[in-house]
UniProtKB/TrEMBL annotation:
PANTHER family from the UniProt entry: ENDORIBONUCLEASE LACTB2 (PTHR23131:SF0)
InterPro entries given in the database record: LACTB2-like_MBL-fold, LACTB2_WH, Metallo-B-lactamas, RibonucZ/Hydroxyglut_hydro, Sec-metab_biosynth-thioest, WH-like_DNA-bd_sf
Protein name per its UniProtKB record: Beta-lactamase-like protein 2 homolog
Entry keyword annotation includes rRNA-binding: no
Gene3D superfamilies assigned to the protein according to its UniProt record, in alphabetical order: Ribonuclease Z/Hydroxyacylglutathione hydrolase-like (3.60.15.10), Winged helix-like DNA-binding domain superfamily/Winged helix DNA-binding domain (1.10.10.10)
A GO cellular-component term linked to this record: mitochondrial matrix
A GO term for molecular function: metal ion binding
Keyword terms of this UniProt record: Hydrolase, Metal-binding, Zinc
Record family assignment: Belongs to the metallo-beta-lactamase superfamily. Glyoxalase II family.
GO biological process, one term: RNA 3'-end processing
Stretches assigned to the Metallo-beta-lactamase domain: 30-196
Length: 289
């Protein structure tokens, strides 16, 4: 059973979590947005979904009670449940966002960057407000523009959708995603505050689980293809043979997942694509390269 997450939680003297009030299959209890800093000008990480008055009311209560303006808004990636509420926030809090800078990493999804106030992040940039310094790390994989934000004072990582408080994350590019997980592990953060789900108190254990889970699925695919050499299988075939007791309504998602694994393996020259199917790469051919 999913943990209950309050609408507003003061996680530490520097961090307030405000739940996006948009629960769902993909968003879990809802999108976590975070206020960071201790002074009169603070940072907001992510903005939740569009058209969620309940979230706007919770944000308003925090802004008024804590008596601060927004210096920066960071969008961890282009998905609607993280950037969708931006216009609502800017319209509702004109005075408190008058001098606010809005930041997001560049994306190939050009249509997402319509807001002319959005400025483009660079990997390694640092931003400081009273009581908080955030360092930007580009972590593609979930999306091409995904970033995590490292709070240097407390060694806390805001992980967006790269790492979730419950379950495992989806991704656009598994090769990049695995690389990003390893980069996050190198940060050795004390705590992870995810874009969905509850606080992660043991980051290394969670990261190791994510990496092991993906490697296990990859090994299953390679083992199956190796045991059926010279036969061609599509994603649906592989799902039927690899996933046990998979509910029918999750079949398409599983096929998509397997497809990402296959694209990673193709990039690593471990499989080959033949028309609409896949085969294991000849071991001797791989070694000769």
């Amino acid at each position: 059973m999913a943990a209950v997450i309050p609408a507003v939680t003061k996680i530490s003297p520097r961090i307030i979590r405000i739940l996006g009030c948009n629960p769902g299959i993909m968003t879990l209890q809802g999108t976590n947005t975070y206020i960071v800093g201790t002074g009169k000008r603070r940072i907001l990480i992510d903005t939740g979904d569009a058209d969620v008055p309940q979230y706007i009311n919770h944000l308003k209560s925090v802004l008024n009670y804590e008596k601060f303006d927004l210096a920066h808004i960071f969008i961890t990636h282009w998905h609607h449940d993280h950037i969708g509420g931006l216009s609502d926030i800017l319209n509702e809090f004109k005075e408190k966002t008058k001098h606010c800078q809005i930041w997001k990493y560049p994306s190939c999804k050009d249509e997402i960057n319509k807001n002319e106030r959005i400025e483009l992040l660079k990997n390694g940039q640092e931003f400081a407000v009273e009581g908080a310094t955030l360092r930007v790390h580009h972590t593609p994989g979930h999306t091409d523009d995904h970033v995590v934000l490292h709070l240097l004072e407390d060694n806390v990582l805001f992980s967006g959708d790269c790492i979730l408080g419950e379950g495992t994350a989806v991704f656009e590019d598994l090769y990049d995603y695995m690389h990003s997980l390893n980069e996050i592990a190198e940060l050795k953060s004390a705590v992870i505050l995810p874009g969905h789900g509850n606080v992660i108190q043991d980051p290394m254990e969670k990261i190791k689980f994510y990496i092991a889970h993906r490697k296990q699925r990859e090994e299953q695919i390679i083992e199956f293809l190796n045991s059926h050499r010279n036969e061609t299988f599509n994603e649906a075939d592989l799902v039927k043979n690899i996933y046990e007791d998979l509910p029918q309504n999750l079949s398409k998602a599983a096929q998509n997942n397997v497809g990402h694994h296959l694209m990673k393996l193709l990039r690593e020259q471990k499989v080959m694509k033949i028309n609409d199917g896949w085969q294991a790469k000849n071991v001797n051919e791989v070694k000769s390269r």
